[in-house]
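Person: At home tonight, work slowly through the protein below, taking as long as you need, and write a paragraph about the fold.
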Amino acid sequence: MSMDFMGSLGGYGSWLVGYVVPFLFVLTIVVFFHELGHFLVARWCGIKVVAFSIGFGPEILGFNDRYGTRWKIAAVPLGGYVKFFGDDNAASVPDLAAAASMSETEKRDSFVYKPVGSRAAVVAAGPIANFILAIVIFAGVFMIAGKQTTSARVDAVQPGSAAQAAGFKPGDLVLAINGQAIESFSDMQRIVSVSAGEPIEVKVERGGVPVTLKARPELKEIKDNFGNVHRLGVLGISRSMAPGDIKTEKVGPLRAIVMGAQETWFVVDRTMSYLGGVIAGREAADQLGGPIRIAQVSGQVATAGFTALIHLTAVLSVSIGLLNLFPIPLLDGGHLLFYLIEAVRGKPLSDRAQEVGFRIGLALVVMLMIFATFNDIKGIFFPGSS
């Protein structure tokens, strides 16, 4: 009996270290920098910050700084918030009753009475901080680990594949796709993976002579090393790895920042392309995941080492920043939409209109979370199903 109990504890301990710890590591970094963006710009604009919280719910520990801000870690570590003076709640919904009775001194410290430009800057600072964090992480990885490249040489063409239909031959060296220069095999894979069903023009070098091929990548289900299924565009060519084929190039600080920005943009572009495909019916929505999938992926990636985990942190930071820019009331993008309307009209929307907007936003966010959690659970118990 006692051995069974100890075995259960060991199983839970392994689950805790393998999944929960990497998940909290990744999410805490992303959330902290997002909220730090709001916090720093608010301070710069002269807004009093009442609370800076990592997590929601009851406070576990915290302290007050010399400006009166309460820094705290809360019990539910699935996000965070910065609460400004004059806010009614953690979502920065203004306390209109309290605002109406504020003194002139209090109005100078409050978020709600700041000019619309200042409020917009504070709100936009969160997602911008996420993008900056991603660029810095990607740049740091490039500087420390260098850039590994493998030439885009075709060593084998699968029979019956899109590549065979297009006329690819072993020995072809891919130079460009749709006019975009290809420096490595991974560059080619990235473009092809997001071009399923779309015609692409591929320029190759064959025996020293340039040849242009027309191809249409096929949509295939590919399993990664962890058993996760991804639907990607595939040509049906492969590259064998011989000693010396993989080259590691050192990257300086300036070039690393540029490459970090390019990597960040790739994540944004891929995300928007996928969401556009979901809306148009070209992509399945089962790739949308929530906290459970993030925890699962964090645990899987952690087994590949710290560099892989910090890379995932950058990808998640981009995703969180992009998500928050969607024009849904309750998210940063919804607030920015209201501020844009206010700037155009010369006055804010009515209290009633804002209240209705926030309720709609809350309903949309809750439905999205339920749908994402459903996908997470389905992916655990029915992997590979669509």
Observations:
- DSSP finds eleven helices and twelve strands in the chain.
- Residues 1-13 have pLDDT under 50 and may be disordered.
